[in-house]
Specification:
The relative contact order is 0.15. A hairpin with a 2-residue loop joins β3 and β4. The chain is α+β, with helices and mostly antiparallel strands. The strands form two sheets. It has a three-stranded antiparallel beta sheet with strand order 1-2-5. Strands 4-3-6 form a three-stranded antiparallel beta sheet. The protein contains one helix and six strands, in the order αββββββ. It folds into two domains: 1-61; 63-149, Sandwich (Immunoglobulin-like).
């Protein structure tokens, strides 16, 4: 009877493996399908986001800055002006940056964001505060404004 026990054990083990293998294979296949679907969905969204980014850049390029001037009052420096959306789509979160220069050397940088959406054909005033009374901006003789981004 000792010789029958190992054969019985071997047969029982083979049955367990025979049942478990297809079950594991099924779970593995299901997991792979979920992974593939998630990957496919993510890649499609990335492609769509790339297209949205290009259209956002076009909308941001349509923002024109005008009536810009630097004001110095009571030790505080500010650059004020008007941003106008000359494009055909609304843009929000517009980021305006001021780079300060001493002759041609870059010396400081400040920025602001426009609040709310800027609809086509509309304008919004902006103010970029440069430093504060206790820490004024670096000495400069010129500045350059850039519209950096939005959504």
């Amino acid at each position: 009877m000792n010789s029958g026990k190992p054969a019985h054990w071997l047969l029982t083990t083979a049955r367990i493996i025979a049942r478990g293998f297809p079950l594991g294979l099924g779970f593995g296949l299901a997991l792979w399908l979920v992974y593939y679907a998630a990957w496919h969905w993510t890649m499609n969204n990335v492609k769509e986001q790339a297209g949205v980014g290009e259209s956002n850049q076009q909308a941001v390029r349509a923002v024109v800055l005008s009536d810009v001037e630097e004001q110095k009052h009571d030790g505080i420096t500010a650059i004020i002006g008007k941003a106008t959306n000359s494009g055909k789509t609304s843009v929000a979160g517009v980021h305006i940056q001021a780079n300060l220069f001493d002759h041609t050397k870059f010396v400081d940088q400040y920025s602001t964001y426009l609040t709310g959406p800027l609809a086509p054909g509309t304008s919004q005033f902006f103010k970029i505060s440069c430093g504060c009374k206790d820490t004024p901006p670096a000495e400069h003789d010129s500045y350059k404004l850039e519209v950096l981004g939005g959504f």
